[in-house]
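Pipeline run #58 for the internal structure catalog. This entry was flagged by the ingest filter as a single-chain record with no existing model, so it goes straight to prediction. Upstream metadata was stripped on purpose; only the residue string is passed forward. Reviewer on rotation: M.T. Logging verbosity set to normal.
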Amino acid sequence: MKEQRCPWCGDDPIYVEYHDNVWGVPEYDELALFEKLCLDGQQAGLSWITILKKQASYREAYDQFDPHKIARYDEDKIESLLQNPGIIRNRLKVNSIIRNARSFLQLTSDGTSFSQFLWSFVGGQPVQNHWKVFEEVPVYTPEAEAMSRALKKAGFNFVGPTIVYAFMQATGMVNDHLVDCPRHAACQALAN
């Protein structure tokens, strides 16, 4: 069988770059995980490519996703974010990143590793799936539901099971590249 990319990425250069270099690569850095979780929440009701195209603007608007800075945002900062055309100007979504920053700081204030907390839902190791067709890939799993519940309990929002599963796929907690995609074997090798 001829190797080909997962069909969801199409041929948009931004999507292809994301598929080939980010999606499914195991990520353990706490701040990178925090950023990705926040961005996945921004996607709610939109296509991922919309957020991907705005990623640089999000980083600039949200102080490179530094939770210590974001947690201190006040009403003036919120109003300026709502005027920023480089991000999704939705009050609930703007407030969710601030809330998630505060929840991140609360969760880690006792020395808990955000990375270890998240990775614990897959036993600390990427789950290697072997899907042959895109229709087999689930929209969420029991692990995503468990992570979603734990994140909500910790105060995070925009972290429903579907958003959380997209986050798990993107950060390599699960390898959902189709088996005939060249990135399946590459991501599997990175997991070892």
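catalog note: Residues 91-108 form the longest helix (18 residues).
catalog note: The chain has ten helices and two strands.
status: ready for reviewer M.T.
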